[in-house]
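Tetratricopeptide (TPR) repeat protein: structure, please.
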Amino acid sequence: MTSTGHVQNETGQPYVGLRAFRRRDEGLFFGRERESREIATLWQADRLTVLYGASGVGKTSLLHAGVLPLLDPDRVDVLPVGRVAPDPALLVTTTPVRSVYTLSLLSSWSAAPPAELAGLTVRDFLDRHPARVDRYDDPIPTLIAIDQAEEMFTGAPYGEADLEEFVAQLADALQAHAGLRLLLSMRQEYLASIVPFERVLGQGSRSWFHLLPFRREAALEATRRPLEGTERRFGENAAEMLVDDLQTVTIYSDQGEKTVLRVSGVEPVQLQVVCAALWESLPPDVHEITVDHVRLHATVDRFLAGFCRRMLREVAEELNVPEGSIRAWLRRTFITEHGTRGTAYEGLDQTAGMPNAVVRALEDRHMLKAEYRAGARWYELQHDRLIAAIRHTDPETFLQAARTALSRAQWTHARELTEDAVRAAEFDDLGVRAEAEAIFGDVAVGTGDPETAWRRYDAAAEMFAVLQRADGVGRVLAAKGRLSLSLGDYPTAVSALTAAAARIPGDMSAQTALAQALWHVGQPRSALIVLNGALAVAGDALLDALALRGAILADLDQPEAALRDLDLVRQHQRPATLAARALALALAGRFDAAEQEAADAIANAGSNGPVLLRAARIRVILGNAVAGADLAAQAIRATDPALPEHLREQARRLLPQE
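Here you go.
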């Protein structure tokens, strides 16, 4: 299909979302050029054309925005697309109604009052319809279409008599008007219902067209081309990432086993839902939609989860059934223990315990689809993608699991769980997104990517600030401070950790990290003040803080105070703690114990400057100035970590004087 230009719809955006395309949306309708041409050709050529496909595959959109614009009004006479679902308001008439289906169809074609249409047949109406001719005075074909034609076969409250009368009227009209062409658009599960009437309606000239989901290239076209009339466009690989996500389905069993499926088609309704949500979520100043935008904003499962919530809410309010009951029924009935789609057949009044009115409402909203098997109507979920949306675990459950994975250094698992949390959250849940960005930052630190970590932390801090979450900002600042500490950027660490400690005064890890940063910039007494204050509140159970305070006290030649702390953390056999305790023992005159612990610390010291300096001081205290000078020189050259400047000066004093 070729359009003369692209225009945004009445909402101001180029995607229609959940609703079907209308005739005026032809400038936004892409990816169905071949199907539109074929159906237009079949409709004009055959007495009966049946267009069928699954719910949500885009039959109504194709008919209105794809096929109708291709029909030349000088060569064919096209009546408005009709429906046969009766509107109760039409039946308020004193004139006898021969068929409610006929009255509904004629009301689609004419604005006349129901009383004027009630006694007419389809042929009567067409007989009165002005005949049109082409430029050669030859009659031109009249095209009529019934959308959602499965409504003829839904039964109650009208039944077989009305249906047979209506079909007879259609056949009579087709027989009387040689140029009349009928198109029926319907869900594929109702195909068996039309077969008994195929011959009488088609009269030897009939065709069938099966509408399938988008193939990849068509999906890309339907994603990219609506933007041609806007100031935005997709950058390199961005549209491809979005479509790939729509073609990728992740399923979890009840035991947590994960299966990733790649499907061949893309459901048009899902593509529209996701693209519309992406458009709405982008900041106003974005003109090129990048891979990062898609990754951040176009989370398909999250959008589908939002779609499910809206649909369940609508059905619950419309039919006065608790939303939680409907969700639980969907989960219990249509999701197996293996995390795959299950099925259920429709009973006389209920389907697996749920009133059929609810089931039909969910089908109308593209959450369920039906097909006939062995004389019964069977339901299943519209798509595998809806499994995760219906199960919808609380995002905090995923975040908590991600934090546990972080504590175990399971970086990939932590990232995947965090991505699941984002998918499970409402799109506008800034709190979940902020927590996720913070965890992504921690993952980047764990995988050795400080640049990404810094960017993620900045994004998290910004979101927490918008939410006025001082605790969140404090946690992120503490993480940035620890990252700076690990990179040897001690002034930045002091700044970030001071700000963090002000926001989360009860967080011992932040206080300990601040003390460590202060020690590194040559402020050991300030570090002690921080640690004393924190430990006075938290008690002696926080080993990292005790170990750090003990080490600082040893460096400041306060062995008794140092040993009080370091004796409490003897089970923490870190080289820095061992070396600090050894120095305190040496300063206290317990030389044998000091020498043994110093040897243990040096054996695992590597290039740790503070450990090597403490060992050097022990050697000098024990009377071996030469060995002490050698270790002091190693401490000055050490890099993991390097000596703070105030300890570097202490090390220089142990070197031989020239």
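Notes: Confidence is low (pLDDT under 50) at residues 1-5.
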